[in-house]
Amino acid sequence: MKQINQIYINGEFVTPHGKEVMDLINPVTEQVAAQVRLADETDTRQAIAAAKAAYPAFSRSTKAQRIHYLQQLHDAVLARADELETVMSAEYGGSLAMVRGTVARASGAFSQAIKLLNDYDFVRQVGRAKVVMEPLGVVGLITPWNANYGFICNKMATALAAGSTVVIKPSELSSVQTRLLTECLHGAGLPAGVFNIITGRGDVVGAEMTRHPDIAKISFTGSTLVGKTIARDAVDTLKRVTLELGGKSPNILLPDADLAKAIPLALAVGTMNNGQACIAGTRLLVPEQRLEEVKTHLLRAVADIHVGDPTQEETQIGPLVTAKQYARVQHYIRLGIEEGAELLCGGEGRPEGLSRGYFVKPTVFVNVTPEMTIAREEIFGPVLSVLTYRSIEEAVQMANNTVYGLQAYVSGENRQQAREVASQIVAGRVFVNGMYDAPDAPFGGFKQSGLGREFGTYGLEAYLEPKTLIDDE
Fold it and tell me: What count of other Cβ atoms lies within 10 Å of the Cβ of residue 308?
C-alpha cells in the first residue's frame, strides 16, 4: 500500500506536523489503495511563512525570469505525462480520454501563462498618471478532486505569472496524484518558497488559509456551499477572492436541431468526467412537439455508452470518486422517481455486469418539471433531466430559472437564431453547436456559480492590483 507521508514547504518535502491519517479507496475495487498523512494548521502557517519570505524577491522578478520558470514547469510536467495519466486513472477513475485531456491542460497551463506574459503590459499611461499592475502578495489556491492536475497548474501558472507566491491546498482525495505532480513541479527548480503544496482537510488547512492575515487572495474551485463560507471568512482580512463554484447547466435544443448530432453531444456534455463536472449540461430543454423523437435518440445513444474499467480505451464513463458520492447520486435518482419524473433509462444500482465499484448507470429522466429537485440541484453524476418547452421564450426563461449561471449550451441549425438564444442565457460561458477549447477566454460564473474569472487576461488581472503613480511633470 502506498504511503503519502510528506508535504512540500519552502522547496523541500517534509513530514507534516499533522497526525491524522486518511485511507484512500480505489473507486473500482473499493479497496484501500493508499494512505495519506494530512497537514494541519501548523503546517499551513509554515507554508504561508515560506511563501511570504519568497515574495519580495519573486514579485520583483522580470517577465523574462518568470517566463523561464514557467517554461521549466511546463517541461517538467510534460516529461512525466504518461505517469501522471496512469496515476490519475487509478486514483480517480476518470476515462482515458478525460485523463489525457486533463494532463495536457496541466502542462498547457504554463504555456498559456507564457503567452499571457509576452503580450501583457504591466505599466500603462493614463493621462498624467502611470498605472502599474502589481501582484497581490501570497495567494492561497484551493483545488478540487475532479481534475486535480489541471486546477493546480492553471491557478499556479496564473498566480506566478502575476508575480505572486502561492500556497496550494489540493483535495485530500487526490493525494497520490498530488504527490507525483509535486515531484514534477519540484524538478523545475524554482526558488524555495515560491510554491508550497500542503494536502489537508478543508476545515483545517483551507480554513487557516482563509483567515490568515498574510494571505492576500484565495482562489477556490469547489462547491457553492464551501465557496460561501470562504467568502464570509475572507471578509475579516478583506482578502480578494475568486470562486468557481457549482452549476446546473442548461442545454437548449432548438426546434430545428439535428437530433442525430445534438443528442450524442447532449449526452457527452451531460455525463462528462463521469458526470462529476460543474460545467455538465444536466438540464436538457427540448421542444414539446419533439419529445418522442428525443426519447428515441436518447435511448439509442445511451445504449452505446460503455461504463466500466477506466483503463480501457472503450470506456466512456468510469466510477464515481467515493462511496459517499455514489450514495449521493443514488439518492437523487430515487428522488427523481419519487417526485414523479419518468425514468427513461438507467436508475438505481450498478450497471449490469459490474458487481463492485462506484459505478452508476447513465440515467435519463423525462417529463421533468422545473420545481423537481433533480432539475434544481447539482447532482454530480451521470444523470440527465429532460424538460420540455412550448416556445423559445419559455426555453430561455427555463434555462435562466436557476440559482446557478456557470455554463450553457445551445444547439440549432439556424446559427443566427442559436446565437441570439445564447446571448439571452445568464451564464459565464455559452457554447453553440458544440463544446470547444478556449483557454484564452474568461471562465467563471454568474449568480451562485461564483465570483471573478479565470483564464486569459481576465484571469491574470484577478491576481493583480492597479497602483496609480502621479508626479509633478
Answer: 19
Q: How far apart are CA 344 and CA 389, in angstroms?
A: 18
Instruction: Give CA–CA dist 467/48, Å, rounded.
Output: 25
Contact 159, 190 (CB under 8 A): no
Q: Crossing angle for the helix pair 415-423 and 392-400, nearest 10 degrees?
A: 40
pTM for the whole thing?
0.96
Which residue shows C-alpha cell 507554508?
Answer: 47
C-alpha to C-alpha distances, 153 to 111, 142, 194, 456, nearest whole angstrom: 11, 12, 14, 14
Active site residue 278: yes
Active-site residue, selected from the candidate residues 85, 172, 208, 244: 244
Q: What is the mean pLDDT of the chain?
A: 97
Angle at 328 (CA atoms; ends 324, 331), nearest 5 degrees: 140
339 is catalytic: no
pLDDT in tens, 306-350: 999 999 999 999 999 999 999 999 999 999 999 999 999 999 999
Q: Looking at 91, 153, 208, 278, which residue is catalytic?
A: 278
Do the beta carbons of residue 71 and residue 238 sit within 8 Å?
A: no
**C-alpha 459: how far from chain center:** 14
| Contact yes or no for 42/20 (Cβ under 8 A) | no
240-244 vs 450-451, strand pairing mode: antiparallel
